[in-house]
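Need a sequence for this fold. Nothing fancy.
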């Protein structure tokens, strides 16, 4: 690995935390942005106190870095502005800081497969626009964009309860019963990042990533996997789309009083009811030589979540 110094956002989060540890283990000097940490930690990580709105902190973060990896993102919001402030404007500021640093040779944006369908939700639109803004501000810096599907693994708080209930024999089916979706273990996503760092600097590209399961998964296949592991039936509880939409609308109304950003919004319901969240690894495999190693069945069987 020729990269010596990496600037990292989202290092206190689920994906960024795993990635930071992998980088440290590989001997990379990590400069990480955080709201409440500063100084050099025992593992060698240099913490820069600040946010994506703090331009002096971003300048310090990117100073002397060979590569910048942007993992930070907003997944909850009460309106489009909540998402845009982080996923669009924050991403643009970070790229501008990387460009001004004069040392950045490559930039990786961890986006989302949702960016493929920006009309579905505020979140999806912000991820798509964030990609566009980063590319527009990059100048000569090659930009690589990863669009992973649903990422899970140790430390994940969103999918873990779903998998735990699944292995107890219950599957809550949301919205459509014919939806197709895909997953990606966090260790595989991090291995893709490391493969990107090891590869020669190339042209700007966008890659979609999943665990490689042919045709992805549907509700029936999830129930079948869990049933095989449990050696017992899995019961399915269906939550109709109309109920999801009603809850989502109520959440938005309540958020005006609580000032808390809900996870389930009308846009999130649109995402949940989208018929096809599958993708292919063909492009990234051909370009970087990356292949995922952990299928969902293996992760559930070995409790790797």
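Here you go.
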């Amino acid at each position: 690995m020729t990269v010596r110094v990496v600037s990292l956002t989202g290092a206190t989060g689920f994906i960024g935390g795993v990635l930071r540890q992998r980088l440290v283990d590989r001997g990379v000097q990590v400069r990480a942005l955080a709201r409440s940490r500063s100084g050099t930690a025992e593992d060698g990580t240099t913490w820069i106190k600040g946010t994506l709105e703090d331009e002096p902190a971003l300048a310090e973060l990117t100073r002397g870095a060979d590569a910048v990896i942007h993992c930070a993102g907003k997944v909850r919001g009460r309106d489009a502005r909540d998402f845009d402030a982080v996923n669009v404007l924050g991403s643009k500021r970070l790229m501008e800081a990387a460009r001004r640093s004069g040392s950045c040779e490559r930039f990786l944006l961890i986006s989302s497969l949702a960016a493929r369908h920006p009309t579905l939700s505020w979140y999806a639109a912000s991820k798509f626009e964030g990609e566009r803004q980063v590319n527009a501000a990059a100048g000569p810096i090659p930009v690589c964009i990863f669009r992973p599907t649903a990422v899970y693994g140790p430390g994940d708080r969103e999918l873990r309860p779903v998998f735990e209930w699944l292995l107890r024999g219950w599957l809550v089916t949301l919205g459509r019963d014919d939806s197709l979706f895909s997953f990606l273990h966090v260790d595989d996503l991090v291995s893709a990042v490391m493969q990107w760092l090891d590869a020669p600097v190339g042209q700007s590209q966008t890659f979609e990533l999943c665990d490689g399961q042919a045709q992805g998964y549907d509700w029936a296949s999830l129930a079948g996997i869990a049933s095989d592991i449990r050696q017992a039936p899995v019961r399915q509880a269906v939550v109709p789309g109309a109920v999801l939409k009603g809850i989502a609308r109520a959440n938005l109304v309540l958020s005006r009083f609580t000032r808390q950003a809900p996870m389930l919004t009308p846009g999130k319901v649109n995402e949940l009811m989208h018929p096809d969240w599958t993708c292919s690894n063909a492009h990234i495999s051909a370009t970087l030589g990356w292949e995922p190693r952990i299928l969902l069945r293996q992760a559930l069987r070995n409790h790797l979540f």
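For context: The chain has eleven helices and twelve strands.
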